[in-house]
Amino acid sequence: MAATEQAPVGFGRMKRKEDPRFIRGQGNYVDDVKLPGMLHGAVLRSPLAHARITSIDTSAALQHPQVHAVITGKDLEAQGLAWMPTLSADTQAVLATDKVRFQGQEVAFVVADNHYAARDALELIDVDYEPLPVVVDPRTAMNADVPVIRDDKEGQTDNHIFDWEAGDETETNRVFDDADVVVITQEIPFQRVHPCPLETCGAVADYDGVTGKLKLWSTTQAPHAHRTLYAMVAGLPENKIQVIAPDIGGGFGNKVPIYPGYVCAIVASIVSGKPVKWMEDRTENLTSTGFARDYLMQGQIAADRDGKIRALRVDTLADHGAFNATAQPSKYPAGFFHIFTGSYDLEAAFCTVTGVYTNKAPGGVAYRCSFRVTEAAYLVERMVDLLADKLEMDPVELRMKNFIRPEQFPYTTKTGWTYDSGDYPKAMQEALRIAGYDDLRREQAQKRERGELMGIGVSFFTETVGAGPRKDMDIAGLGMADGAELRVHPTGKAVLRISVQTQGQGHETTFAQIVAEELGIPPEDVEVVHGDTDQTPFGLGTYGSRSTPVSGAATAMVARKVRDRARLIAAAALEVSADDLEWEKGRWFVKGDPEKAQTIQELALASHGVLELPEGVEGHLDAVSVYDPPNLTYPYGAYICVLDIDPGTGEIKLRRFISVDDCGVRINPMIVEGQIHGGLAEGVGIALMQQIAFDEQGNCLSGSLMDYLVPSSMECPDWELGETVTPSPHHPIGAKGVGESSNVGSPPAIVNAVVDALEPYGVTHVDMPVTPARVWEAMQKGTTEPPQ
Amino acid sequence: MQITITLNGEPATAEAEPRTLLVHFLRDNLGLTGTHWGCDTSNCGACVVLVDGEPVKSCTMLAAMAEGHEVRTVEGLERDGKLDPVQQGFVEEHGLQCGFCTPAMLLVARELLDRNPDPTREEIKVAISGQICRCTGYTNIINSIRWAAEHGEEVTA
Fold first, then answer.
1. Can you name the CATH fold of A292-467+631-781?
2. Best CA proximity match to A457, nearest among A673, A303, A659
């Protein structure tokens, strides 16, 4: 549905304020930043996955007429900058000094007149490597005979990073030991994938040697957190660092970490006294920046024979690559994986996660999900389908039987989450209605008789987003609260400054609508400033669907502060008690005498004018707010995927995808639907097409878009959306966050549909990515002969 | 070497190394940054421009090969202060999010509508199948191009 012609004053469908610049090619991305005298950097990367560096000879590169500098790890070591902290309390090499630990690791940085020359000069650097045995398989990473990858770390004697657990092991074992329960065990890998935003990562660093100020344009989803970390690492005073996230060409979690290239650009600018740009290419993006998932899960589900699910157990091996650079709140090394009990009312649950180092790129970023929720949702939704298969129950019926019931909210799970609100059966029913579920099953039965393979996959997910309460959640010691600042000018036009920023989500529109809703002024009158640490209040950034739950709440609260101050000023202007005033969108009026009123615009002028203000009321309407969420929010959804498989080739054709999302109150439904569409398409890529794969030497086999496939228009059906609205009770406007829901919920729906299609072959599980080859293989290995 | 092209209807000349790719020539030498670079391997389509009216991935064409040819970029879509219908369609139907794929998407849409003013959804899918969008999931892009097909005359009038 198209945006309305007339923008709403508040929530509703509205065209985006961002669009006019983008449709004219006037966006300003990092690579569009061009400064006088700017130089260009390029990174020399390791061709080997594990090797000792015996020498680096940069002399030939330095003789290149267009080269200004070549920086190596030794140069950085002298400044104490060879290593940087990661977002997970680990360290990561900026430029390798002792060893390289994954293929594609940063070894040297060339600074030249232009990027062609910089790339030429990379060829002139001579590095001697002494190859070391490579650890690729996380299952053998802890064996005694494998090399210690992180021998740089004092006391590190193996490749172990962490052990973590949640839930009650004893209680869970008790349920599993019950002789009457049906137990299903299944190994469920979630392969390594990459967020692959269309714009790769990069930065322009501009250090002013006179003022000591560093200005950094970078592809970051967390400019404030990055500024603080740069201050801590580089020793630059934080007031002299300005991080700017200009227009960003998609992030999806890939642009949360700090990458060595950013640090090298900063150092190069300080050394050369000139601005330095570094933009990675696609191969660098895919092979060296934050990957996602890579969880090997051993799932177990226990249920009564009538289909009552009683307990869930999972042991997980997490491959974090060579540096633990995953991004999640510090207390949770496995992110929010312990939401793996999903949408079901269980008796017990227990999970363990062991993190290991391997000779692969670092990461484990929250790719369009809230810190491992996607892995968790995939696990539980596959296990439930396996159970349905075993019990010969319809997967919808099994889910319905086990859902947390609406009257149980707020519901505390067996692993400690308190779900805020939900009506799961209602969302499921809505999805069934849109899909025409019963008709689909009838059609499937007819097709099966003809030997045609049609699959219907169901998933139901619950997410935990909007991290998070600062008492529980921080990243690198920085609490996850976010600020908003609202200025109302004398004419009633406003400027909102927010800590989060858009990588395409439309903050300039949505956040203006929040102010509009709260103050009753048109969204066109609200300018949203974001993505510049000098211009905006502190906050942790945009990821984990946290912009609306956290910063959106801060925005509503700051607007309410403005409204409250306006009330006191209205009382003075109207010469009544503030208690006698009533609010309606846009104005305060006297109870019982609605003609006697002051609009926000009039009050803005009065607040700047000569009106005698009540005692204790400062002039102007400006206000600041910091929002510390009391709980996370819990969006959820019911998804149904319909697909057909060619039995001759194993090719999968997605026919329909129905997505019913409940993200609480929708601020701009058009933008919400767009977010859901995008996540669904990414889910198709993950489920059917993508894997960052390695050979046994640690060579990355997925280093270009020829090998790492992203869905095109040909793989995506027209998405069919529905909605239910269950507001979050603790969020000021009842919104829950939606940017990532569909990436979380879609992979299990798609895989469940494939398995459902292959049921005639006795197939109960297929690993992602479900390529035609995997489908064909599953058909051959199936336990039953298909009907002829 | 000196390279001269016709850029959005006007002659444009700049010095560039013979190896300069058209995408870099447009962005770095001629200063039009609406054309984006995304992958190096001609897969993502973010760099598509129209050369003599045909969509071309400008990361795989040397600037020198465009010498004497007509190149149209996103900056040339709006004419005399009037948006091209495809531009308006993308705004109306929320056909863009981060905006990175948008310029090339718009040009491919323009070329499609020039040869097929009333394309089916399937024809649109095929036309944009060389363009990757990571944000929209394509449905709204198809809606946007349909909007342009249905409202083309109103906007350009």
1. Aldehyde Oxidoreductase; domain 4 (3.30.365)
2. A659
Is B103 within a domain?
yes
- The pLDDT of residue A2 is 52
- Are the C-beta atoms of A346 and A312 separated by less than 8 Å? yes
- Model pLDDT, residue A688: 98
Tens digit of each residue's pLDDT (9 = 90 or more) over A744-787: 999 999 999 999 999 999 999 999 999 999 999 999 987 676 65
d(CA A246, CA B7) in angstroms, rounded, equals 27
Q: Does A713 touch chain B (CB under 8 A)?
A: yes
**Residue B107: closest CA among chain A residues belongs to which residue?**
A23
pLDDT at A788 over 60: no
Instruction: Give residue A782's pLDDT.
Output: 77
Query: For tokens 């692969």, what's the residue?
Result: A360
Domain assignments of chain A as residue spans, ordered by start: 33-132+199-249+255-288, 292-467+631-781, 481-627
Average pLDDT for A420-437:
98
Instruction: Indicate the pLDDT class of residue A235, thresholds 50, 70 and 90.
Output: confident
The fold of A33-132+199-249+255-288 is Aldehyde Oxidoreductase; domain 3 (3.90.1170)
Taking only the tens place, the pLDDT of each residue in A356-408 is 999 999 999 999 999 999 999 999 999 999 999 999 999 999 999 999 999 99
The token duo for A225 is 């957190």
Considering only CB atoms, which chain A residues are within 8 Å of B43? 704-706
| B97 contacts A674? CB cut-off 8 A | yes
Identify whether B157 is part of a domain: no
The answer, for B48 touching chain A at a CB cutoff of 8 Å, is: no
CA triplet B87, A501, A676: central angle to 5 degrees?
A: 60
Determine the structural domain holding residue B7 and report its residue range: 2-76
Burial of A85 (0-12, 13-18, 19+ CB in 10 A): middle
Q: What is the pLDDT of residues A687-731, one digit of tens each?
A: 999 999 999 999 999 999 999 999 999 999 999 999 999 999 999
- Stronger pLDDT, A614 or B91, i.e. the higher one: B91
**Which positions of A are catalytic?**
221, 368-369, 740
Residues with pLDDT less than 50, chain B: 157
- Report yes or no: A7 and A523 within 8 Å, Cβ to Cβ: yes
Has residue A5 got a pLDDT over 70?
no
With CA atoms as reference, report the closest residue to A293 among A632, A705, A692.
Answer: A692
pLDDT tens per residue, range A256-308: 999 999 999 999 999 999 999 999 999 999 999 999 999 999 999 999 999 99
Secondary structure of chain B: what % helix, strand, coil (to 5)? 40, 15, 45
- The total of structural domains in chain B comes to 2
Residue B61 shares a structural domain with residue B10: yes
| A506·B102 Cβ contact <8 A | no
A241-244 vs A213-218, strand pairing mode: parallel
Helix (H) or strand (E) holding A593: strand A593-599
Q: Which tokens is A75 given?
A: 């140069």
Do residue A710 and residue B97 have CB atoms under 8 angstroms apart? no
B155 touches chain A (CB under 8 A): no
A682 contact residues in B (CB cutoff 8 A) = 134, 137
CB-CB contact of A660 with A427 (8 Å): yes
Q: What pLDDT shows up at residue B154?
A: 61
Q: Report the half-sphere exposure of A304 (CA within 13 A, side-chain side).
A: 7
> B60 and chain A: CB distance < 8 Å anywhere?
no
